[in-house]
Design a protein that fits this description.
Length: 130
């Protein structure tokens, strides 16, 4: 891959998807399955709906993390589908980060940085109008 920005974006997305979503989601599933008391869960979500449904949120985090890693691998292999999937993941994350405290801050930083790198790496110096 010749474009350094796309490569850095893909690496950020792999770190974000694997280390912040998929692995913690997998590791926390047994805890949540054995303890259904929402009061023992730290306040990581700003809405009680998400906190009360943590057992359903964790598998979705794993799916989202795996999808993020797949998109990043597509970018590393210079595939347009990987680029488009990665842009979609970043935009969705930027919308969802509002509902998570404090993990949403890290999500926002990683997703926003990856999105900026993806777009600037893909479009490079193209002008809006010619």
């Amino acid at each position: 891959m010749a474009n350094k920005r796309l490569k850095i974006a893909a690496i950020l997305m792999i770190i974000h998807g694997a280390l912040m979503e998929a692995v913690p989601g997998l590791l926390l599933m047994p805890f949540v399955a054995s303890n259904s008391n929402a009061e023992d869960v730290p306040p990581i979500f700003s809405l009680d709906f998400f906190r009360n449904n943590l057992a359903l949120m964790l598998p979705m985090a794993v799916i989202f993390g795996v999808t993020r890693v797949i998109g990043a691998v597509g970018v590393l292999k210079n595939r347009k589908w990987g680029f488009i999937l990665s842009v979609i993941n970043c935009v969705i994350t930027m919308n969802l980060m509002l509902f998570m405290i404090p993990a949403g801050i890290a999500d926002g930083i990683l997703a926003s940085t990856a999105l900026l790198l993806l777009l600037s790496g893909y479009f490079r110096n193209q002008k809006i109008t010619e």
